[in-house]
Amino acid sequence: MTVPGSGTLSPQERVLTARVHTMVGLAPDTVMVKPLTPGSVDRYLRGEVSAGVVGARPPFDFRLVGGTVARHQDCVNLRSPGDFVKAFRLDYAGSPFRPDLAVLHTMEFPALFPDHYVVPFGAPSVPTADKRAVREAAYAMVDAVKMAGVDPNTYRQEIAPWPYSGTGLTAGGDLAMPEWWKRPGIVPVGARIVANGAIVAVFRGASMGWEGQR
Hints:
The protein is of the alpha+beta class. The protein has one domain. It is built from four helices and eleven strands. Strand 9 (192-195) and strand 10 form a beta hairpin. Helix 1 crosses helix 4 (131-148). The model has no long low-confidence stretch (mean pLDDT 96).
């Protein structure tokens, strides 16, 4: 089986795709967006801190945010939960997200420290793809990133399960957008939880937690 994502691109297409990240850098005031798993808003509001259950439930801390994120300006055309699921490719194995969700909450917050973010470049792994082919696709993508002139301090090589694309963009088809991985850290004061364009909660700091909005 052909490696999907970066594995389907020609050398020229890899360079052109990587070049996107020479034009879409982050600044401290860049607003970032992270989709929140269904049911997690109540956990934020009650200030939950949990070690989780291995293999069943991941750790949770209402004060922290991290993982895959995108810029708010790249999300303005996402209107429905289905749009977010497609654009962020939240249909990964075992995902709690569904395109037919009645509502999907996101967290919006300023980037603050651009050096806490990296772009994952490489290739996706799939059970039916040859591991050597996956590695070669990842190396080829990173070589293209270097040729495109992307700042070497802003990315890392990564192989991860599909629907991770390895191209620096989500595998969202016509809704694809630049993606970053954020190092887990304290949620900035003033961050918001939003749904359907309405503010649901505002973060008042680690001591005060999330304040629900009516």
